[in-house]
Amino acid sequence: MKLNGHILSISIISIFLSLPLNAAAAGEAHLQNFTSHWGGIVCVIVFCLAYSFVIVEEQIHMRKSKPVMLAAGIIWMIVAIVYAQHGDQHTAEIMVRHNLLEFGELFLFLLAAMTYINTMEDRNVFDKLRAWLVSQGFSLRTIFWITGVISFLLSPIADNLTTALLMSTVVMAVGGTNIKFVSIACINIVVAANAGGAFSPFGDITTLMVWQKGIVEFQQFFVLLIPSLVNWLIPAAIMSCFVSSEKPGAIEEKVELKEGAVVVVVLFILTIMMAVCAHNFLHLPPVLGMMTGLALLKIFGYFLKMKIKRQNKSAVDDNGAGALGVELFGDNNEKKEEEFNIFKKLARAEWDTLMFFYGVILCVGGLGTMGYLAVLSEFMYIDLGPTKANILVGVLSAIIDNIPVMFAVLTMMPDMDLTQWLLVTLTAGTGGSLLSVGSAAGVAVMGQARGIYTFFAHLKWTWAIALGYAASIWVHFLVNG
Prior knowledge:
Layout lengths: L1 H24 L12 H18 L1 H4 L4 H21 L5 H32 L2 H10 L5 H19 L1 H16 L3 H19 L7 H9 L11 H16 L20 H20 L5 H33 L23 H6 L3 H19 L2 H13 L1 H14 L2 H11 L5 H13 L9 H9 L6 H5 L2 H19 L1
């Protein structure tokens, strides 16, 4: 069995080593315009049908990854057939490998980040923060502002989705049956989390894609801090006028950090530093630093697992275990801590989200290979101009989702200066706040506060959020233009 495993490993390594050679042997890609061809039209129809299922995910309860993964397979089969009919056997293969590389870097980066977040959650890092907030006895208006500030500052590190889920549990615990407060506080959290994620390479998938592409350097993202802050502060200031100043009773909740919690936080910060250094100083993909950090977490997980195992054994022995290790007292399980298993944290990654990214990247890449992105790029960035186009990207991201929109922009690679690339990063990151379904944070909080934070509850405040969106664009040109 062990020998077979080694043979399998060698075979897999041989296959992967041959991939670059096969791609190189295939030659260069020669993209053609098939936008009016039957194949191109069918590809658009397939993508639209798949994405319609994504939009109604909450109603039909079908995971969003399923239709887009199927669509990706169908689209690329059509791409290969159409190019082959025109005597080109290699372009489809070269382009699909290029898109798989794009996905691979994003996938591994997010997998490492998600594992760290899940580990910190397991070690009660986020529960400790939540318990402190609900036990302080703040007024509802103070909680509104505190949760907004924390969402804005935490999302650049922990990502906007995790931040929004954490803060929404706080307002639900404090607000209780006060539906009006919980609803408006959740809107504030979603807007703050999206705005905070826009000025950090780690805060949102779109900023991560721009950073990994090498278009904007790590430190250059932080010039978006002031525009992002304006994006949140304007709607927050308007909504806070409608939040009560009453002071609900403090909720007593004591949470202790589990063994190794502080070390995991330190390792996470170190991992982010390694990702930044790998990109800035060694000119390597940031994912290499993230995966090295994940390896450190896994090694620490081993020692943590061994330590907990020894502590559990000691607790059993001290309370009267027999010679064969059989417990004599029935309440010993209360003193035992569950053994730490890093692979359980790895398994708890958002696999539906990761597979959704696969489907979207492959679908958009396939449409680009058929010529649609070139046509769209000419219309948006030449006919409309980059400023109008980038503002439109933000509006589209609220309707479609910022990930496929941003990936399409990165695939088009329009000729823009740094100011415009920062603008599209800002608009794609914050435009999703215009609607509750426009961002992962909004969709997640809709599930968390089901029936309270709804599409129409958010829509009532879209005008205020739009004011912040417009003001942030103006401030961006004022500060960074």
